[in-house]
Amino acid sequence: MELARIEKLVEKYFEGTTTTAEEKELRAYFSQDEVAPHLVAYRPMFRYFSEARKEKSEKEFRIKPGKRRNYAWLSVAATVAIAVGIWFSSRPSAEEKEALLAYQETVEALYMIGENLNKGTDKIEYLNEFEETKNKILPVENR
Amino acid sequence: MKQAEFLHTVMPFKDKLFRLAKRLLVSTEEAEDAMQEVLLKLWANKSKIGTYRSVEAFAVTATKNYCLDRLRSKQAGNLKLVHSNYTDENISLQREIEARDSVSLMQEIMESLPEQQKIILQLRDVEQYEFEEISEMLDMNPTAVRVALSRARKTVREELIKKHNYGVG
């Protein structure tokens, strides 16, 4: 390769005006064993870039299925669970219902007793009436 | 997009993402994590893949952003030792010995560059992307890319000549 051309390319390279094709030429030149003494200082640079490009990741990339889940449905499920929980806890339990029923039945029974008692006092009213009438007919002293 | 089709799309450039991540994060493990993360994100948004002008350019941009974020959060999370206060003779001597190997010398020089120059040098001189592609990936105009590239190359040159004059090369 013509040395003058390489020198010119090196110059352009440091100005950032070489094309990728020209940079390839430079890497090829510096990969040789024979490099002009005044350019040898740049050799590690170009060799390093060629070497660095060969490095590969040892780790194999794999898409883990289900690793990334859609959590949107989870919030829906949580909302439903909470709502059901609140509904159950606010609803009277079976025991409470039984107690309520017993209470109502007791109240009814007491009312029934009360009514019957009142029936009894109604009958006593008749007795009073009878007493008064009797007193009118039979003189009190005759008794 | 099916899984096989997706893998077929990303396989040709996945190592480029890895190398860019490693350039920035240095650690191989962290670079692999970065690549994995970027590709999984791409897969999760596979319905949008058709809308990207270039999937590869998009993935490079995502990798760059991911790595810069990692570096920022690392900086924020750790107290950094300030090394400028003292010089450890042993370490610098050891560095000199290591630096005799031109690959590790170049690695060291690359590491010392500012992030943006590192990225541009990686994309151009290692991955051989065109200016138009790099300017799309970095959202910079091509002239700015060229200027930063030239600056990065000249810094590398200076460092190399410095070392070369010490008898390394």
Automatic annotation (TrEMBL), chain A:
Keywords: Membrane, Transmembrane, Transmembrane helix. The chain crosses the membrane at residues 71-88. It comes from Sinomicrobium pectinilyticum. It comes from the Bacteria. This is Uncharacterized protein.
Automatic annotation (TrEMBL), chain B:
It holds the Pfam family Sigma70_r2. Residues 13-75 form the RNA polymerase sigma-70 region domain. Gene3D superfamilies: 1.10.1740.10, Winged helix-like DNA-binding domain superfamily/Winged helix DNA-binding domain. Keywords: DNA-binding, Sigma factor, Transcription, Transcription regulation. This is RNA polymerase sigma factor. GO terms for biological process: DNA-templated transcription initiation. One of its GO terms (molecular function) is sigma factor activity. InterPro entries: RNA_pol_sigma-70-like, RNA_pol_sigma-70_dom, RNA_pol_sigma70_r2, RNA_pol_sigma70_r4_t2, RNA_pol_sigma_r2, RNA_pol_sigma_r3/r4-like, WH-like_DNA-bd_sf. Belongs to the sigma-70 factor family. ECF subfamily. Signal peptide: none annotated. Residues 106-155 form the RNA polymerase sigma factor 70 region 4 type domain.
